[in-house]
Amino acid sequence: MLHLFFIINPSSGKGNHSINEETIKTYFDTKKYKINVSYSKYPKHAILLTEEAIKLNPDVIIACGGDGTINEVANRLVNTSIKLGIIPIGSGNGLASNLNIPKNSLEALQIIENNRTTTIDVGKINDTYFFSNMGLGIDAEIIERYQNSGKRNLMSYVKASINRSLWYEPKVFNYSIGNHKLKESLLFLFISNSNEMGYNISLTPNASLSDGYLDLLTVPKLNFFNKLYFGIAVIINKIHTFKKAKHHLIKEMNVDIENTSNCVAQIDGEYHILNTNRISISILERSLNIIIP
Ligand SMILES: Nc1ncnc2c1ncn2[C@@H]1O[C@H](COP(=O)(O)OP(=O)(O)OP(=O)(O)O)[C@@H](O)[C@H]1O
C-alpha cells in the first residue's frame, strides 16, 4: 500500500484552489493508498509538518502550494528516499512549470498516482537549500516589497520591481568563478537551478534541473534606459538580447557583499535575512527524488 502524505498551504496563490482533504480522499482509492493530509497554518509551518510526516516514513510527501511551500517541504527531503510530489496551487509556480506539472489539480493528482520518478539537482545557500532559484541585491528587495504588498500576482511583482529600481543603490560584490576573482558593483546576482522563475518568466531559459550545474546571471549597475530595456527583455522573454547581463555555469561559489552585515536574499521567491555578508553557494547533484509527468 502506497503511503501519500499531503501538505497543503491554504493561502497559496490567492487561496482560491479546490485542493483539500475531501478532494484528495475522493480521488484516491483508500483501499489501495494510505492517505494523510495536513494544512500549514503560518509561514514556515510546512517545515515542521514535513518533519512530523517523515517520522511516519511515507513513500511520497506532496507539497500543495507554490515555490515557497515546495521549498519548505523539499528542504527536509534532500538526500532521503522519500519522494517529493507537487500540486501547483501557488501564484508563480516556477518549479512546477519547469517540470511540466499542470496547474489543474486533478491532472496534477493523476501525476502523483502515476508515480513516475526522477532525481533533480538541489542548490545550497549557506545552510539552506533552494530548488528553483535565489537572488542577491535588488532581486531580494523586490521580493520583500512584493511580499509586503499582500497581493501575490504578476502585476504586484512588476510594480515592486519598478518601485525598487527607482531608488536601489547597487552594492559591491566580491565573488569568484573558478580561479577568477571579481569585484563588481552589481544590481543583482541571480542563481537558478530551474528554467523558470514563475509567471512564465525566465532569466535563465537554458537552465536544467539535472545537468549538474547552477546557472549564474550577474547584472551590473545600469542607467535608466538600460533598466527599462532589461525590464522589457525579461517580460517578453528575450533576456539573451541584453548583453550587459553575464551568464556562467557554476558548481560552487563564494560571495561577499561589502559594507553589509546582514545580507538579504530571495530564496525560491521568499525573502530571507542571512545574518552574514559571506555567502557560500553550491550544488548537490541529483539529490532530490521527485514525481514528474
Ligand atoms: N496558513 C498560512 N497563512 C499564511 N501564510 C502561510 C500559511 N501557510 C504557509 N504560508 C506561507 O505562505 C508563503 C507563500 O506560499 P507559496 O509559495 O506556496 O505560495 P505563492 O507565493 O502564492 O506561490 P509562488 O511561490 O509559486 O509564487 C510561504 O512562505 C509559506 O511559509
From TrEMBL:
Query: What organism, scientifically named, is this protein from?
Result: Flavobacterium jumunjinense
Task: List the SUPFAM superfamilies.
Answer: NAD kinase/diacylglycerol kinase-like
* Molecular function GO terms recorded: kinase activity
Q: Where is the DAGKc domain?
A: 1-129
- Return the InterPro entries for the record: ATP-NAD_kinase_N, Diacylglycerol/lipid_kinase, Diacylglycerol_kinase_cat_dom, Lipid_Phosphate_FormReg, NAD/diacylglycerol_kinase_sf, YegS/DAGK_C
Keywords of the record, alphabetical order, are: ATP-binding, Kinase, Nucleotide-binding, Transferase
Q: What class of enzyme is it?
A: transferase
- Entry protein name: Diacylglycerol/lipid kinase family protein
Q: What is its EC number?
A: 2.7.1.-
